[in-house]
């Protein structure tokens, strides 16, 4: 199960989407013991701080089928120094000027000559979604004196980044927060910018940067073998564990599809999906849900195995077909949001066909408060 050597008796442990459901206390105890033996740290979520802070009763967690245990492998991440190639700690490895503890080479510079830096002045101006930002190339970051030197040119970059006269005007509005300076030849813009940035005293606030100097990589080490940072290990790094005896089998209801979709980490909101019919659901989704249905609901699991191959594959269609399978009067959610508006707008601007479903979702998405904020920002530009 999940690449782990676990003892399972009569299906008393079931994995769905990488989570494990224990059907009995005995199965749970055996599972936790075997996971600990395999190197996992196991957290008892009944005792977790966030549960205590929120004041959620344990009985609620049990009846509503929350995960009650969380297993994770201990920290497996290490740095590899780009100069000496030795395994080093990841602590601070990606902060400007950090030095390798083995050979002293610098592992990272955030800003170097040629880096791109986007920022705003820390002033009283309202920071709406489209408030002006400047994007400029870095010449040098003098971290000892806390001064950033930028080439006096404005780069383009998205909706909020201003250039030309707008950028000049923005600089002028913030006179006194910068000066002309130089590093060797050439006129540069010099701005106070400390290594230890503090919102209350900072002159500028960084938004993004790229073109950093990297002299390290992050790896994962498991059982003596090195893996790339985002590679999958042969076993899961984390596992959520459920105790199904508190709530299973779930009765058939008009909302059961929600519970099953969420076990497969899927939304039951059709509005969240693209509305143009593009495929979303794969056989993997349905076969994971099939396990959940068979072991934890009163639905006819054999009938489901026969039914799902003919479900529509797009998000909204798949949700409808599945919900209808679960209950003839199932209630599905359809709450379009700013995303639906943007997709439709974007397609129209590109001269692409907008489906009826898309335009309807976009119109209803206009009522979403996020959309209203977004449009307000657009008008203020
Ligand atoms: Zn080194």
How would you explain this protein's 3D organization?
Helix content is 29%, strand content 22%. It is α+β, with helices and mostly antiparallel strands and 381 residues long. It has four domains: 1-73 and 235-248, no CATH class; 77-108 and 215-228; 111-211, no CATH class; 338-380, no CATH class. It has a six-stranded antiparallel sheet with strand order 12-13-11-10-9-14, with no helix packed on it. Strands 1-2-18-4-3 form a five-stranded mixed sheet, sandwiched between helices. Strand 12 (178-182) and strand 13 form a beta hairpin. Helix 9 (338-349) crosses helix 10. The model has no long low-confidence stretch (mean pLDDT 92). It binds zinc ion (ZN). Residues 81, 83-84, 86, 100, 102-103, 105 line the site of zinc ion.
Helix count, per DSSP? Answer: 11
Overall 3D shape: globular
Task: State the end-to-end distance.
Answer: 55 Å
| Strand ordering within the main sheet | 12-13-11-10-9-14
Q: Which percent band covers the strand fraction?
A: 15-25%
Number of strands: 18
Mean pLDDT over the full residue set? 92
Give the helix/strand class: alpha+beta
Q: Could you say which small molecules are bound to this protein?
A: zinc ion
Unreliable spans are none
């Amino acid at each position: 199960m999940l690449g782990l050597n676990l003892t399972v008796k009569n299906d008393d442990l079931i994995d769905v989407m990488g989570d494990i459901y224990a059907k009995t206390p005995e199965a749970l105890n055996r599972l936790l013991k075997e996971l600990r033996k395999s190197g996992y740290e196991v957290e008892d979520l009944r005792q977790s701080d966030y549960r205590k802070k929120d004041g959620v009763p344990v009985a609620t967690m049990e009846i509503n089928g929350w995960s009650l245990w969380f297993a994770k492998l201990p920290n497996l991440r290490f740095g590899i120094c780009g100069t000496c190639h030795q395994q080093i700690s990841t602590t601070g490895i990606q902060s400007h000027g950090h030095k390798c503890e083995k050979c002293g080479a610098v592992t990272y510079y955030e800003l170097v000559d040629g880096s791109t830096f986007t920022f705003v002045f820390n002033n009283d101006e309202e920071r709406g979604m489209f408030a002006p930002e400047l994007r400029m190339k870095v010449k040098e970051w003098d971290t000892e004196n806390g001064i950033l030197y930028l080439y006096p040119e404005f780069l383009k970059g998205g909706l909020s980044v201003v250039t030309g006269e707008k950028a000049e005007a923005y600089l002028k509005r913030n006179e006194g927060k910068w000066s002309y300076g130089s590093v060797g030849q050439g006129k540069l813009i010099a701005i106070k910018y400390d290594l230890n940035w503090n919102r209350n005293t900072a002159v500028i606030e960084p938004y993004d940067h790229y073109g950093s100097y990297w002299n390290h990589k992050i790896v994962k080490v498991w059982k003596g073998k090195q893996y790339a940072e985002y590679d999958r290990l042969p076993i899961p790094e984390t596992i959520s564990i459920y105790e199904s005896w508190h709530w299973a089998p779930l009765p058939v209801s008009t909302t059961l599809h929600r519970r099953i979709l969420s076990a497969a980490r899927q939304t039951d909101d059709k509005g969240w999906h693209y509305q143009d019919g593009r495929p979303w659901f794969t056989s993997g989704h349905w076969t994971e849900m099939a396990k959940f249905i068979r072991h934890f609901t009163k639905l006819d699991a054999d009938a489901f195995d026969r039914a799902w191959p003919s479900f529509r594959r797009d998000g909204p269609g798949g949700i409808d077909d599945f919900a209808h399978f679960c209950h003839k009067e199932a209630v599905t959610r359809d709450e379009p949001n700013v995303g639906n508006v943007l997709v439709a707008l974007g397609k129209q601007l590109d001269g692409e066909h907008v489906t009826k479903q898309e335009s309807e979702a976009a119109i209803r998405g206009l009522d979403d408060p996020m959309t209203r904020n977004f449009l307000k920002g657009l008008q203020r530009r």
